[in-house]
Amino acid sequence: MADDIITVEHLRYTYQDAQVAALDDVSLRVPRGTWVSVIGHNGSGKSTLAKNILGLLEPDAGVINVDGMVLSEETVWDIRSRVGIVFQNPENQFVGATVADDVAFGLENHAVPREEMLTRVDDALNAVRMREFANREPAHLSGGQKQRVAIAGVVAQQPQIIILDEATSMLDPAGRKEILALIRELKDRLGLTVLSITHDLDEAAGSDQLIVLDDGHVVETGKPSQIFAHGTSLVAHGLDVPYSQQLRGELGKLGIEIPGDYYDDEGLVDYLWTLRSTM
Amino acid sequence: MDITFDHVSYTYQANTPMAGVGLDDVSVTIHGGAYTAIIGHTGSGKSTLLQHLNALLKPTSGTVRIGERMITPSTSNKNLHPLRKKVGMVFQFAESQLFAATVREDVAFGPRNFGVSAEDADALAVQMVARVGLPEDVLDRSPFDLSGGQMRRVAIAGVLAMQPEVLVLDEPTAGLDPAGRREMMALFAKLHADGQTIVLVTHQMDDVADFADDVLVMDQGKVVRQGHPKEIFQDAQWLLDHQLGLPRTTQFALRLQQKGFKFDHLPLTTPELAQMLAEQLGGARHE
């Protein structure tokens, strides 16, 4: 479809020497300009999927299409220049002696002229509010600051798509909130598409679309409210149940059945208050 | 074994222009047999406090008593070895410290270092690998062929193999997926039920509410509150003012309260909140 910036069709990937495929007949679509989360437990195949989309791993079978190009040896570099990825551990992705050098590194690799590079690095650091740290050593930053620098490195490449590979899972709750808000702001301002790989349901709750992976298969696809409505199946897939659904379950045990599919926290607070007011 | 801090202060890079306060006049007791949680935002002094628990740091002033052993600013660095055995530290991302060719050797390394015979150290390795819930067949595999969660269990087995009286855990579930986190917390609960003293540093307030029986709240190098989770989380606004989170249930109850619900105390767990709501809503079903 013209509006899908990523499509994956019948993708299969097997690691060398492995008995079972890490991804088996995986098909999905990511509409341009949306935030799509792939959720699943560790080992479910989430990161393998991201690596296949970037052409870091070569599929056994299936077709991957990114921004109108079928992924192949000829298109892989073109595709990579349109996709930026932020990994789980910022420690593992620093190469520069200073924050600014680090942000510039990706641009040097893409042979961006120096004048333009300086502007892009400055703009990117400004976008993540790390400009005053430009000449600092990355090693002396907090986890959240490091992740902001990593995001600046991605933003400087002016990609169409940002892939978050558990990008907030090593941060404390405050750092996590801050990074998610920053990505959301950048996505809206720069018109990006976000593909987030996560097992954090709070992070996934804000997505337009959820894709649940388990044992290399897509087991569910839908809006967060649809997926969260049948909470217990998430536990079966090694994930958590959203809090509002947990509380509904406990209330159900005490004889208070709440009709309807899914309420987020706010919806459930409203429902309970209405129930109390009608007593 | 209790660990008691008596007016402990610690200054980083003392007597230099870079001097910074790590701990500021801390007096507190961590009780033997307890499950103590230490909470506080990044930079509040949690790690500095941890490093005093087995004399990795010595106070700049004041004393730390670890069991029978007294640590003062003038304590010599010699003979601190036995303390390292009594207080076992599991640092963040402990799996990054694995190094041996097999799980068996890695877990046996600690006891071997403390003079345990090869045979006894091996027996300890077998026992501890089972205790952390790993199958026996991992013993002769390379720790690096295991999953991240399994590797962390091996690292914890390595600390348990030294049979510490106090087990200190610094963010032990960071980076694990939900199922891994649940299993890890269940493991610590079981160790505690078997008599292990536990000190847990965490940002996960649900874990504090579910497992701890004593909480230390740190801020700017001081222990600003100590008490049972039930007491600590009652003062929700105070915690939020100190940039600390609340258990999910307590957050939800606060929102209900803002809407108009009345609670005589703030609940910590989902069943507790459900019970309180049922008492207020129970009549609705009979209309």
Describe, in plain words, how this protein is organized in 3D.
The complex is a heterodimer of chains A (279) and B (287). By secondary structure, chain A is an alpha/beta fold. Chain A has a single domain, classed as Rossmann fold. Chain A has 11 helices and 10 strands. A 6-stranded mixed beta sheet of chain A has the order 6-7-8-3-9-10, with helices on both faces. In chain A, a hairpin with a 2-residue loop joins strand 4 and strand 5. In chain A, helix 5 packs parallel to helix 6. Chain A is globular and about 70 Å long. Chain B has 287 residues and is an alpha/beta fold. Chain B has a domain of 41 residues. Chain B contains 11 helices and 10 strands. In chain B, the strands form 2 sheets. In chain B, strands 6-7-8-3-9-10 form a 6-stranded mixed beta sheet, with helices on both faces. In chain B, strands 2-1-4-5 form a 4-stranded antiparallel beta sheet, with helices on one face. Chain B is globular. The mean pLDDT of chain B is 92. The chains are: A alpha/beta (279), B alpha/beta (287). At the A-B interface, helix 6, helix 10 and helix 11 of A face helix 6, helix 10 and helix 11 of B.
CATH class of chain A: Alpha Beta
Strand order across the biggest sheet of chain B? 6-7-8-3-9-10
- String of helices and strands of chain A: EEEHEEHEHHHEHEHEEHHHH
User: Sheet with the most strands of chain A?
Assistant: 6 strands, mixed
Total beta strand runs of chain A: 10
Q: What oligomeric state best describes the polypeptide chains here?
A: heterodimer
From N to C, what is the helix and strand string of chain B? EEEHEEHEHHHEHEHEEHHHH
User: What count of helical segments of chain A does DSSP give?
Assistant: 11
Question: Strand pairing plus helix content of chain A: what structural class?
Answer: alpha/beta
CATH fold-level topology of chain A: Rossmann fold
Using the CA coordinates, give the radius of gyration of chain A.
21 Å
Helix content range of chain B = 25-40%
Beta-strand percent range of chain A: 15-25%
Taking the alpha carbons of the first and last residues of chain B, their distance comes to 57 Å
